[in-house]
């Protein structure tokens, strides 16, 4: 107690006693938190009601792993596809570069060609960064290409240290520090991916390790980033939950006890328990400047935090989009469907075919009177996706005309009204469906087929 310094906290303007400096806790046996992770049962969420304060950084941003983690769960993108998506990220991130970085593989010629073509664009944002194996040869490759930063895998749970790497904690720490030092020797800024942090010994390994990383940062004068990776999606954002599952607890520990500044702290989440978005937002709230994401959540197993979700989380927290062009999200969804051949589930928020389609009859009636009643925001303005009303037995001619105009984006002279012979013909089919006992709304594909057949029957070019 007597040896710890007392200093003024500039945020609270109160004197603060420095916390205990946590040494490495080496152990002969792995601590796999079997009380929280009984493999034969559902994992447990325990509480100790220790609350840590919100401390959102002045600047927050989004980073992307679509071309790295996102490619580990699907057919690899072509070079042209990567360049097209990278262009779109630049436009989506806006003039302030809210989408700050994109990480790339470097191993294949295709990946390197994509990096070179993206670098030729000359964009400040998203900055191009990489993910490599922890080897001197790969560090030199990063330097040769001209990148300033690279990700390095540093698994931190005893599951990985003991079972996968067959090391002790001390051996793993020394190995990792040696690798990071090699990276710094080449002048490259390392981004340390703390794999499986939500099953790790936070105070016995993670914080001692990060303290050493911050010493290397100061020694070399080169930033050393910390990416906290919720590899298995175990993180929870509940106040008072215990570590290692507590996202607030992890972020607080890294900032307050390991001395990692917010601008060097990043959260990387997975969606195994449907918590990726909430956990990423929580990381912002408690002090991480960056959250890592992948477009449409495409990633390992259940996927990563969806990039598009964090765009709207940012706007909700900041009260502004800060220049981000959210209509690009719709362009990307259409590109994936038409050019890449990736099917986005219809009810996926913001990008699914039916995310703003109202099917319930009583809801449709309200929506036709005022779309704010059942639409989350002006989806036409922000996503170039006008709200749709599904056709049912209560739609009437006006409802069918509204569906056709919004679904096919017919405006001005091209728009149809309820007096159109085509609308009347479609309504006859709809009425017949419900007269024979149907109780569900008409699907989009059914309407497309009926409209096509009806227009051919009436000799109308539609």
From TrEMBL:
Keywords: Transferase. It holds the Pfam family HMGL-like. GO terms for molecular function: transferase activity. SUPFAM superfamilies: Aldolase. PROSITE patterns: PYR_CT. Residues 60-330 form the Pyruvate carboxyltransferase domain. InterPro entries: Aldolase_TIM, PYR_CT. The keyword Transferase applies. The keyword Transferase applies. This is 2-isopropylmalate synthase. It comes from Anaerobutyricum hallii.
């Amino acid at each position: 107690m007597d040896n710890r310094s007392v200093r003024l906290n500039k945020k609270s303007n109160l004197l603060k006693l420095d916390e205990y400096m946590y040494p490495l806790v080496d152990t002969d046996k792995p601590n796999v938190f079997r009380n929280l992770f009984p493999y034969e049962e559902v994992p447990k969420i325990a509480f100790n009601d220790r609350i840590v304060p919100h401390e959102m950084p002045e600047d927050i941003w989004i980073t992307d792993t679509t071309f790295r983690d996102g490619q580990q769960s699907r057919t690899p993108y072509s070079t042209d596809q990567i360049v097209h998506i990278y262009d779109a990220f630049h436009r989506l991130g806006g003039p302030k570069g809210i989408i700050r970085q994109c990480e790339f593989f470097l191993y294949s010629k295709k990946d390197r060609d994509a990096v070179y073509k993206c670098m030729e664009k000359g964009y400040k944002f998203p900055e191009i960064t990489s993910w490599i194996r922890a080897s001197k040869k790969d560090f030199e490759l990063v330097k040769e290409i001209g990148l300033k930063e690279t990700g390095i895998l540093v698994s931190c749970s005893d599951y990985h240290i003991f079972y996968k790497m067959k090391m002790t904690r001390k051996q793993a720490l020394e190995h990792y520090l040696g690798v990071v030092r090699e990276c710094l020797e080449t002048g490259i800024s390392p981004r340390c991916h703390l794999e499986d942090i939500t099953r790790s010994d936070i105070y016995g390994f993670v914080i001692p390790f990060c303290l050493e990383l911050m010493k290397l940062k100061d020694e070399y004068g080169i930033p050393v980033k910390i990416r906290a990776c919720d590899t298995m999606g175990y993180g929870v954002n509940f106040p008072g939950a215990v570590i290692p599952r507590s996202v607030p607890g992890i972020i607080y520990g890294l900032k307050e006890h390991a001395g990692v500044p917010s601008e060097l702290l990043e959260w990387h989440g997975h969606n195994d328990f449907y918590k990726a978005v909430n956990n990423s937002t929580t990381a912002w709230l408690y002090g991480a400047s960056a959250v890592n994401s992948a477009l449409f959540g495409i990633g390992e197993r259940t996927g990563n935090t969806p990039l598009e979700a964090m765009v709207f989380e940012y706007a909700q927290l900041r009260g502004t989009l800060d220049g981000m062009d959210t209509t690009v999200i719709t362009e990307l969804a259409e590109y994936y469907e038409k050019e890449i051949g990736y099917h986005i589930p219809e009810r996926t928020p913001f990008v699914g075919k039916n995310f703003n389609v109202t099917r319930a009859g009583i809801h449709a009636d309200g929506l036709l009177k005022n779309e704010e009643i059942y639409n989350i925001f002006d989806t036409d303005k922000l996503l170039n996706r006008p709200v749709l009303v599904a056709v049912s037995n209560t739609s009437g001619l006006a409802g069918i005309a509204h569906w056709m105009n919004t679904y096919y984006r017919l405006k001005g002279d091209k728009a149809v009204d309820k007096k159109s012979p085509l609308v009347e013909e479609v309504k006859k089919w709809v009425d017949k469906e419900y007269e024979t006992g149907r109780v569900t709304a008409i699907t989009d594909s059914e309407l497309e087929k009926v409209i096509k057949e009806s227009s051919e029957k009436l000799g109308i070019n539609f």
